[in-house]
Amino acid sequence: MRSLLILPLAMSISAAQAVEWNGRVDLDARVFPAAASGTIESTQGMNVTLEGFQDLGDHRAVVELVGRYDRRDSGRRSLEARQAYLRFLVGEGDVFIGHRQTFWGTAESANPVDLINQSDGAAQDGKEAKLGAPSVSYEQDLDVGLLQLWYMPHFRERTFNDADAHPSAGLPMAAAQFDRDRGANADDVAARLSTYAGDWDLAFSAFHGTARDPILVVAGGSVTPTYPRLKSLGLEAQYTGDASLWKFEVLSGEQSGDDVLAAVGGVEYTLYGLAGRVWDLGLIAEVSRDDRPQATADQMNTLGGRLTLNDTQDTSVLVLASRDADNEQSFYSVEATRRITKTSSLSLEGRWYDADRPTLPLGVLADDDELRMRFSVFF
What we know:
Blueprint: H1 2-14, E1 20-31, E2 42-56, E3 59-70, E4 78-90, E5 93-99, E6 134-142, E7 145-152, E8 177-178, E9 188-197, E10 200-210, E11 215-219, E12 222-227, E13 229-240, E14 244-255, E15 258-274, E16 279-290, E17 299-308, E18 316-324, E19 329-341, E20 344-355, E21 370-378
């Protein structure tokens, strides 16, 4: 495999002047209004993303580098090759070798079928914050849809914030534990077939490897992330109507010897031309069920709205509220974004946690309410 990589990489370096580059710099300020004594009350950080690609005949080299610095939280300091891969045209399909990212799922509130890349938990950037991991994958367009095959020889552990940072359980993280004998070096394999039928977008997937979501075990004054073995099948379905998107995804399988089921479904219904303007309002309603031990609750109900002003500044606001079926814990979030110039934007974000008991998963995060302002420059 090494000889397969050397020639295209050398060609890429020698032709660096032809590489297509773009990037962004994010400057953010974060405030934690409910911070407990001894924890960070506010901090500032910077995130730099650099993306580039180089065509090499029928092949392509792609790189996405992310550097992140936080003034007070060392857990948010990293230099990450989120993507760094070579794509080769082989027969009727493409082979990808290196760090590559993909997203599986349809829903807004949870994505149990999204099992390829690990979440960058310390980044707190939602679905976009993923870690790169070495892999070999293959894609081919078949008559029945797009086929993806994945082989991942090494597992990336989830990132966490410092014990005095946010969000955090307030305890240091111990070394990760794995159910599989080879730990982080155990092989993962996955396959996915995506297709469509009329107004339906469908995807079927299979996974065998290490679960991306750890079980957090509190003992001896620290938190130990424990990664179980997972064998699962997944289904994604999305129906696109005139004003509605019906979304559903389910994961069913076996986790460390126990049967597990996680599913989420709902609808986003869009009201066009709100208040006689060009504004659009998408109303979101989702229900998720998850019987895995790492789940926040057995059932979470989510309501929200997505307001898009369709103006030249690309102004949008997303509000979500989630509460468990027992009415014991809740999570609220809001995100507003507006372009300032052709090459810059400003976003305001807020996250709030609420629980009846401090021992509940969201109760542990009671002091992690967050307000963030982010200024981004694109180049």
